Amino acid sequence: MASQKPLLAVTMGDAAGIGPEVIVRACAEPQVHQCCRPIVVGHPEVLREAIKLLGFDSRVIEVKELSELNGLETSPDSLMVVPIGSDEVLAVPHGKVDARTGHAAFEAVDWAIEQTLSGPFDGIVTAPLSKAALHAAGHIYPGHTELLAERCGVDDFAMMLYLPPEEVPPCPAGLGVVHVTLHMAMREVFEHLSIEAVLAKCHLADRVMRDGMGLSAPRLGVCALNPHAGEDGLFGDEESRLIAPAVEQARQQGLDVAGPFPTDTLMGRARDGEFDALVAMYHDQGHIALKLLGMHRAVNITLGLPITRTSVAHGTAFDRAWQGTAEATGMVAALRAAARLSLK
Predict the structure, then answer these.
(1) Residues 115 and 48 placed together within one structural domain of the fold
(2) What are phi and psi of 152, to 5 degrees?
(3) For residue 1, is pLDDT > 50?
(4) First to last CA, the chain
(5) CA angle at residue 287 from 281 to 290, to 5 degrees?
(6) Strand order in 158-163's β-sheet?
(7) Helices (DSSP H) in the chain: which residue ranges?
(8) For the chain: N or C, fewer Cβ within 10 A?
């Protein structure tokens, strides 16, 4: 009888970074195989090198045909790998930005998207890639999120950072932070904020907490943009002009949403169980606060896609790459989250 556990494509990320190491560590954890079947997408020799670095006994088993995945069971002592990427990546120095590893990382993600949209996979879990290496290879995307959105043909999407419930016990379904704007300079944030953008992210946050995490009525909190929520217009009018009208429209459309609130107090309220998800106005407003609560256990979830995609909430860490010290808790959390979302 075929396994009912989700089949997840785990893209290796940039081979010069910590992706290979965190994948090897995570896939050696029995808890991962209890909830899903991870299949790594990348260069097998890079993963063998990571196994050797860590002193593990795992075997790399190359998957030559996708038909081999039918009913396949995975285990902590074996790493199932679909070979993607040329041998050029083997010559790239560890911890360096290089177009060759950038292109290989792109190929892995592109292949995984195609095989999840129309093939055997139930979701994608991505190890970090280097945006600089991606650009050096001619793939001009701000990051994974925008690449996934383009390949999936969606315009209404968002990044959510998520902590599972065991990290925030007062929150029964965990805690998510959805971002209205993402990878852009701070000076560009203001021109990308609108009532429509804030409202759309409220709906995406409600949907994932409702359909993905099983809440019947998610409670959403919306961040202000300016200090003290604008202090009645003294520090800016975006709260009264854009954010508050979006919150009111969301309430009229049936969402349980409140705000805008000053972010310095809102995150504490959410941590204590008052909200299930927050809507942040820009990247660091959401990232810094959530990562302070659970840096190594935070999961990146892309909302609005027709497929499941999760990731670790950290980068390639070139300064720590290939030293055998990378933390893999985030990859374990990303795999578990993807397995949960894929079953919905």
Answers:
(1) yes
(2) -90, -5
(3) no
(4) 21
(5) 115
(6) 59-62, 78-83, 37-42, 7-11, 123-126, 308-312, 299-303, 158-163, 175-179, 277-280, 219-223, 256-261
(7) 19-27, 30-35, 44-54, 99-117, 131-136, 144-152, 186-192, 195-207, 238, 244-252, 263-271, 283-294, 329-342
(8) N
Predicted TM-score of the model (pTM): 0.92
Which 8-state DSSP code applies to residue 255? Answer: -
Mean pLDDT to the nearest integer, 176-192: 93
**Both tokens of residue 118?**
């129309």
CATH of the domain at 321: 3.40.718.10
Domain interval for residue 170: 158-291
pLDDT band at 231, cuts 50/70/90? confident
Segment (H or E) for 260: strand 256-261
Residue 300 lies in a domain: no
- What CA–CA distance (Å, rounded) separates 141 from 187? 19
**Cα separation, 290 vs 310, whole angstroms:** 16
Confidence of residue 162 (pLDDT cuts 50, 70, 90): very high
Give me the residue label for tokens 């029995």: 30
In this structure, what token pair is assigned to residue 259?
Answer: 């705000």
